[in-house]
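Dear support,

I submitted the protein below through the web form. The confirmation email said the job was done, but the results page showed an empty box. After a refresh the structure appeared. I'm attaching both so you can tell me whether what I see now is the final result or a partial one.
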Amino acid sequence: MRDSKFTLFITIVLAILTILLALNYYKDYQKIKKEEKTKTIFEKKIDIKKINKLIIYNPTKIEFVKKDGFWFLYNVDDIAYDYMVENILSSIYQPTVSDVIDFEKQYYDQFFKKPIDVYFTYNNELYHLQRGIKNDFTSETYLWIDLKDYKNKIYIVNYWDFNYLDKSVEEFRMKKLLNIDQEKVEKLIVNNVAIYKEEIVDKKNKKKKDEEEKKKIIWKLSDGSFVSKEYINSLFAILNNYDFKNISDKNIENKKPLSTIKIFANNKEYDVYIYPYEKDEYVVRTSYRKYNFVFPKIEIEDFLKKEIIEKKIFSYYIDNFDDFDSIFISDSRARFNFKKKEGKWISSKNEEKTSQISLLFSTLRNLEYKQKFETNPINSKYELYTIELNSKNTKYKFYLYNTDYLAFGKEIYKIDPFVFILKDLLK
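What the results page shows now:
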């Protein structure tokens, strides 16, 4: 009996020691991995933003030249995906190195049977590197640097840091029209209508005192009207999201474009012209690329059909109705309270109203106005309902008059009535 207890004690102690050793090993392993990820081969600091030319032989010669803020693919005189080129440069400068071995010819012949050569110039010094074969078992590859201080070593690195070196010319060619960050755009002019960007601090969605203030982008016309979010999203989808189908060699410059878009960003102007093409296609010409690109009709037509003015009343104000946790609705009789508890909406009478409030939120989210007024257009000065939506950080209040007028902020909107939804909620 005493032996069995002692054996159990020893087993428990060994199990604890094993767990502690495993945790310690895991901690050391993570530390090593972190050090690997931040390891830099070159002793001299390289600012990859100052590199303006890159050449790859894989074995095709692929040449990139940086000008006007773009990486140009010299082979086809077109724009390349900048993230691919910059990934190659940053990986060269700061790869994930798992091991370093001394250079020996037998190793070189084994690991660099069909090497990919990379050349770039920095501070008037030519850099030449070779990437070797991929080790399919470890997802690693081999790097050799043809420079005096490095050529006596072979670096074992993560293959996925260098997989873009295997791409073809057409894979490097950017299939998007512009691929520009919306935040970098200062202004748009669409069919001679100017659209201005405003960045406001979204203090209502700031959750903590020490949290960085979030900026919200608002697009407006010169008269102060909001531009439809769907319109803006559809426009940037053409610029950034859709891939062109092919390139057209037809001369369309003498034709009148269906739409003209001017994008002002990075202190430059980029012009985009949309033309009808074939039955199910449009062709797009730009001021910054020499080719005419063919796009499917459905992708372009979605933008052409959109209205420019935002008609949804709460579009720019309420991002997510799910953030609200309490609602107060008042009419001439009483004030009604609703609170969210464990994902369900409960009234002050302890009745569940989740489906009714979901319907109310859906209605408000898509509520569009027919007309907008800055002064009260109706005779009644008394509201039918006062509605207050609350969360931890936000509070919105608006009023319903004569069933089909809604007052919010400084403006009054004529709307389709939704009083029946409120009546069903309050009964």
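Response: this is the final, complete result; the empty box was a page-load delay. The chain has four domains: 1-38, 48-172, 182-304, 321-426.
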